[in-house]
Amino acid sequence: MSILVWIITTCIVGGTLSVVCAALFAFNNRTQNYLGGMVSYAIGALLGAVFLNILPEAINLTPNVAILSGTVLFGILLFFILEKLVLWRHCHHEHCEAHLTIHAEHGYDHGRSGMMIIIGDTFHNFVDGIIIAAAFLTDVHLGVVTALAIIAHEIPQEVGDFAILLHSGYSKLRAFQLNLISSFASVAGGILGYFTLQTMQSWIPSLLALAAASMIYVAVADLIPGLHKRVQLRDTLQQVVLIVSGVGTVWLMSVLMVE
């Protein structure tokens, strides 16, 4: 397949898969019990993709490692600011700030919170598409691994989005439709990234550094704190095993793609 076909296919399949899986978690009380495990696995996949694939590739491509490291640092600060401004809101568990605000209102908010989430998620997916394009333009196996990590963390995020939409007054069908439409913003981002980055190859290391920063931020600042709410030894061991499994999956994918 051509690189463009890889990008479009990955964005479509990845976006659809993450929304469908998230819907199964959000709409079924039984499957919600496994969400904590999904979050742990996503942490491993994100960190594995960053430290085993994305950063090594970015270092190989950049003429200045110090500037690349500074870009990662800048990216972490940037995503912190964006989250503070509610432009990029990740919600992975029932008792997050977004849910507490909605429950405190004792009723629907006529779609305001839901629409805010969809706008933020659309922007998020658009950026994910650009990141996937940058990864595929570097190397096909890096693109696949990056897409895998993005899908892994999209599922728990989309579960939170579904919950907010439902509490904001949307039906299950409408919530699913909005999330699915929002996910296709990654396709637009991927296509734009493909045609833009081909003529600006020097941007790719910086974009990979920003991709690494976004994944580090999501894993460390957004997902890991939620795991600390389960302090039992059994829960901790389960979390560690699933995190290692996420890292192992990325490593295995890298090995298979290289072969």
Which helices and strands occur, and which strands form pairs?
Elements lengths: L2 H25 L7 H27 L3 H20 L12 H8 L7 H27 L1 H28 L4 H12 L1 H13 L6 H24 L5 H26 L1
Helix pairs in contact: 1-5, 1-6, 1-7, 1-8, 2-6, 2-9, 2-10, 3-9, 4-6, 5-6, 5-7, 5-8, 5-9, 6-7, 6-10
Average pLDDT taken over every residue: 82
* Number of discrete domains: 1
Structural class: mainly alpha
| Discrete helix count | 10
The percentage of residues in β strands lies in under 5%
Q: Radius of gyration, rounded?
A: 18 Å
Question: What percent of the residues sit in helical stretches (DSSP H or I)?
Answer: over 70%
Biggest sheet details = none
Summarize the helix and strand pattern as letters: HHHHHHHHHH
Number of strands: 0
Query: Uncertain segments of ≥5 residues (pLDDT<50)?
Result: 88-95, 97-111
End-to-end separation in angstroms reads 17 Å
Question: Per the principal axes of the C-alpha atoms, what is the gross shape?
Answer: globular
Transmembrane segments: 6-27, 34-55, 61-82, 178-197, 203-224, 236-258
Pfam families: Zip (PF02535)
Main location: membrane
InterPro entries: ZIP (IPR003689)
